[in-house]
Amino acid sequence: ERSNLAGVRHILLVLSGKGGVGKSTISTELALSLRHSGKKVGILDVDLCGPSIPRMFRVQDNDVHQCDSGWVPVFVDQDKSISLMSIGFLLEKPDDAVVWRGPKKNALIKQFVADVAWGDLDFLIVDTPPGTSDEHISTVEALRPYKPLGAILVTTPQAVSVGDVRRELTFCKKMGLRVLGIVENMSGFVCPHCSECTNIFSKGGGEELAKHAGVPFLGCVPLDPQLSQSLEEGRDFIQEFPKSSAFPALAHIAQQILDGMSQRSS
Amino acid sequence: QVALLDIDICGPSIPKMMGLEGEQVHQSGSGWSPVYVEENLGVMSVGFLLSSPDDAVIWRGPKKNGLIKQFLRDVDWGEIDYLIVDTPPGTSDEHLSIVQYLSAAHIDGAVIITTPQEVSLQDVRKEINFCHKVKLPIIGVVENMSGFICPKCKNESQIFPPTTGGAEKMCQNLNVSLLGKVPLDPQIGRSCDKGQSFLSEAPESPATSSYRNIIQRIQEYCDQHHFQEEKII
């Protein structure tokens, strides 16, 4: 029997040791960028306590349907170029808290990995909660037979964030998960009134960490209220704001992933 | 006399922020000794049990719960006025366990932190529901990273736009107190990274007055609460 992940060409995890650094944002923007390059992308949201992905695509009110091979993922548009699975779709009310201990979380994650009928995808992006615990261990173990491409680690520039991401790097090493690179998010803010750039969350920690750990540095993404606004409204930032300060950084990250692919196949 | 207990087992940030990185925990006859920042401020965190900043704590729920229990049972805090517990994000093992283990000691309440945008409020509403479910009183909500004032032109920008009314609207809808809003100040991040007290380093910052007002409201809540308890006794 063909597994539900048999048609998925590449699996990418987005990790961070730290909360609030923008994993879901980066996962969303990466999916949109890859779609604009003509790829078919799925996002698996394994943040069971704080599922952010549905709202970022404005499909938070959608339901999940069953088919013969399992759960049908939620498509974000007619083209069916981006599909999603998240516990967010399974909640009766959006404010319902998922107050589960580890074993129950692990059971759902196993189901999410095995039972979603993704069909053919170029990329499956797995968005995770912060930390190095049940969700992360279970996800990596369940995905192991499908040989994930690797992980992108997201940090903000300051040392307190980098400190947790160092631990995430250790997690990747111990779990045998390749690190594709580090993204430094919220890296500087350009005032829309006077264009002065302020490093609200300091600067440089992500790049230093990449150097120290010997992993690629994928780039700095600045703070951009237009990006925040797009995400709030579930709009396509890549399409709407190609002139924004965050756009080149996000496009560059996607390009490096794609370049990495072609290198690996040749 | 204040105790700060960091139960973020995977991402312990408190030691760095308190300028205590590299400190270790000492054992004595009466248990584990907290690490003191000042005579009247003691700290405990898994961070003090790790030998390298690269050490990852890759534990499933039950093991995390075990350590939290140990922290509560074996740390010799002495007599304290306030025990502050810093938690990781979520509504899972750590949160259930801390509420369960402290139930006999009677928790005054929870302070819930959010940022202004809906993607944060979405999760915070769940956290508020969690508190209701486990009968944990809510002291109030703090809206963090609430606006940024450009140091050059002094104009304000909403970096995390409150598209659905921010914490203010959410608190109105859910009938919880909004304790205050803290603006973004680059000095906050810098002080935390250096392990210095932001309140001492930037006494004139608008963020400092916000913090102080919020802290005052929390103290008032606790004083009132204590008074009511005494009345019951």
TrEMBL record, chain A:
InterPro entries found in the cross-reference section: Mrp-like_CS (IPR000808), Mrp/NBP35_ATP-bd (IPR019591), NUBP2/Cfd1_eukaryotes (IPR028600), P-loop_NTPase (IPR027417), YlxH/NBP35 (IPR033756)
PROSITE patterns in the record: MRP
Xref: Pfam families: ParA
Coarse class of the protein's main subcellular location: cytoplasm
Molecular function terms, GO-annotated: 4 iron, 4 sulfur cluster binding; ATP binding; ATP-dependent FeS chaperone activity; metal ion binding
Cellular component annotations (GO), alphabetically ordered: axoneme; centriole; cytosol; nucleus
Presence of the UniProt keyword Acetylation in the record: no
Keywords: 4Fe-4S, ATP-binding, Cytoplasm, Iron, Iron-sulfur, Metal-binding, Nucleotide-binding
UniProt record, GO biological process: iron-sulfur cluster assembly
Compartments reported by the entry: Cytoplasm, Cytoskeleton, Cilium axoneme; Cytoplasm, Cytoskeleton, Microtubule organizing center, Centrosome, Centriole
Residue ranges that the Swiss-Prot or TrEMBL entry lists as coiled coil: none
Subunit structure: Heterotetramer of 2 NUBP1 and 2 NUBP2 chains. Interacts with KIFC1. Interacts with NUBP1.
Function: Component of the cytosolic iron-sulfur (Fe/S) protein assembly (CIA) machinery. Required for maturation of extramitochondrial Fe-S proteins. The NUBP1-NUBP2 heterotetramer forms a Fe-S scaffold complex, mediating the de novo assembly of an Fe-S cluster and its transfer to target apoproteins. Negatively regulates cilium formation and structure.
Protein name per Swiss-Prot or TrEMBL: Cytosolic Fe-S cluster assembly factor NUBP2
Species name: Cathartes aura
Organism phylogeny: Eukaryota, Metazoa, Chordata, Craniata, Vertebrata
Automatic annotation (TrEMBL), chain B:
The keyword Iron-sulfur belongs to this UniProt entry's keyword annotation: yes
Gene3D superfamilies: P-loop containing nucleotide triphosphate hydrolases
Location(s), subcellular: Cytoplasm; Nucleus
GO biological process, one term: iron-sulfur cluster assembly
Pfam families: ParA
Region forming the signal peptide: none
InterPro entries according to UniProt: Mrp-like_CS, Mrp/NBP35_ATP-bd, P-loop_NTPase, YlxH/NBP35
Keywords, sorted A to Z: 4Fe-4S, ATP-binding, Cytoplasm, Iron, Iron-sulfur, Metal-binding, Nucleotide-binding
Annotated Gene Ontology cellular component terms: cytosol; nucleus
CDD domains: Mrp_NBP35 (cd02037)
Alphabetized GO MF terms: 4 iron, 4 sulfur cluster binding; ATP binding; ATP-dependent FeS chaperone activity; metal ion binding
Functional description taken from the UniProt entry: Component of the cytosolic iron-sulfur (Fe/S) protein assembly (CIA) machinery. Required for maturation of extramitochondrial Fe-S proteins. The NUBP1-NUBP2 heterotetramer forms a Fe-S scaffold complex, mediating the de novo assembly of an Fe-S cluster and its transfer to target apoproteins. Implicated in the regulation of centrosome duplication. Negatively regulates cilium formation and structure.
Protein name: Cytosolic Fe-S cluster assembly factor NUBP1
